[in-house]
Amino acid sequence: MVRPERLIKLTRKLIKINSENPPGNEREIAVFVRDHLRRLGVAVKTYEFKESRTNVIGLIKGVKAKKELLISPHLDTVPAGKNWHLAPFSGTIKNGRIYGRGASDCKGNLAASLECINSIIEDKVRLNYNLVFAATADEECGSGLGLIPLLDKNILKPDYSLILDADEMDIIVAQKGLIHMKVLIQGKKAHGAYPWRGENAIDLALKAIGEIKKEKGRYTAHEFLRPPTINVGTIHGGDKVNMVADWCEFELDIRFLPGTRARQVLAGVKKNIRRCARKFKIEVQDIQKPCEIDKKHVLVDRLSGAIRSCGMHPRIKGSEGATVITFFQNKGIPAIAYGVGSRNTAHASDEYIDIGNLYLGTRILEKFLKTF
Predict the structure, then answer these.
(1) Is residue 218 predicted with pLDDT exceeding 80?
(2) Which of 32-46, 109-123, 213-227, 279-293 has the lowest mean pLDDT?
(3) Same domain, 65 and 133
(4) Three-state DSSP class for 371?
(5) pLDDT (0 to 100) of residue 321
(6) One domain, residues 126 and 60
(7) Average pLDDT, stretch 115-124?
(8) CA 30 to CA 42: how far, in whole Å?
(9) Alpha-carbon distance 250 to 255, whole Å?
(10) What is the band of 140 on the pLDDT scale with cuts at 50, 70, 90?
């Protein structure tokens, strides 16, 4: 069974290990997790795709198992930053909460999964599937040194995946696609007193942005997601106040729904820029496909059942932001996300996790794993 005192102690220990990314060094926390699993008798391997960027893989074999379930939290956190009222690596307990960088994202989930593994072994539960545990590096900077190579190299090839990186026992079954791009607009230089002699690239960029944001495009409303969004993240241009700017660049963050293809989105952006500027260039920085899974899928059904058995009503939701479940979709592996974090605290100063939710969410995960 899940032991609350042990769970709280473990969560605090994990928070006290600094694994900020950037700069990125998961070795210390990975060694802690590896040694913890070895003491429980779990077969463990570590993988590094760059020095000190360590991933931990554990395996509990089931009885005559033919299927494999992966559970995966991540090891890294965003930088602590400033403006904390409590020390960010202290694991301070106050008013029923554990404070510290990573408390919700993702060390509470890491502790929950380790406590569940402890419970499975302690209670001598005979699983009818192979349980794979992967605590991964580099999630906060794109997973290029974590989940992506682990999947690409077939180190991980589960039949089902449960990503432990969500808030307050939500079940995440869908997420938007992502395009990050830089747009470079070229104009013509001239003296600032004679702007008609030039072509102001900043003016052209502002017109283009207006056209891009005005066109909503065709989309079908989604049960679990808000409409598509476009955010202008940065804009720079010109060389001096008394010169007509002959260059301007801006970056776009575009989120789009399942059923829409990235090439459709890109074609729409190009069309709208072409209306405003004769010379421009688009640099695509990142594309992630949208993804979704049937809300009646066995993963969702069994996790919902575990939630009900612990006295809660399942909350099935979508994610507006990109999560790692998209990497599993690319491999044809069913994946959902679940987690015990506290809402709206991830990446914030004074990040915390509610102890009651940590315990309840871990019990739900334990029930799911023991009955899947």
Answers:
(1) no
(2) 213-227
(3) yes
(4) helix
(5) 86
(6) yes
(7) 98
(8) 15
(9) 17
(10) very high
Domain of 194, CATH number, reads: 3.30.70.360
Tell whether 336 and 228 lie within a shared domain. Answer: no
Name the residue with tokens 């990235």: 262
Q: Which position has the token pair 């990573």?
A: 102
Q: Is the dihedral of CA 57, 61, 65, 69 positive or negative?
A: negative
Q: From CA 265, how far away is CA 139, in angstroms rounded?
A: 26
Cβ atoms of residues 60 and 127 within 8 Å: yes
DSSP letters for 181-200: EEEEEE-B-EETT-GGGSB-
Domain count, the chain: 2
Long-range CB contacts (< 8 A, 24+ apart) of 85-94? 85/349, 85/350, 86/350, 88/351, 89/15, 89/16, 89/17, 89/18, 90/15, 90/16, 91/11, 91/12, 91/13, 91/15, 91/16, 93/8, 93/12, 93/355
Share of the chain above pLDDT 90, in %: 96
Residue keyed to tokens 């008609």: 196
Instruction: Point out the domain boundary residue: 231, 253, 288.
Output: 288
Per-residue pLDDT averaged across 109-127, rounded?
97
Q: Which position has the token pair 């230089």?
A: 189
Domain span at 255: 177-288
The confidence band for 272, taking pLDDT boundaries of 50, 70 and 90, is very high
pLDDT score for 219: 83
The Cβ of residue 235 has, within 10 Å, a number of other Cβ atoms equal to 14
* Rounded Cα–Cα distance for residues 185 and 245 (Å): 10
Domain final residue pick, 262, 288, 314: 288
Tell me how far apart the alpha carbons of residues 272 and 230 are, in angstroms, rounded to a whole number.
14
Question: How does pLDDT run across 299-318, given as a tens digit for each residue?
Answer: 999 999 999 999 999 999 99
Q: How far apart are the first and last CA of the chain?
A: 16
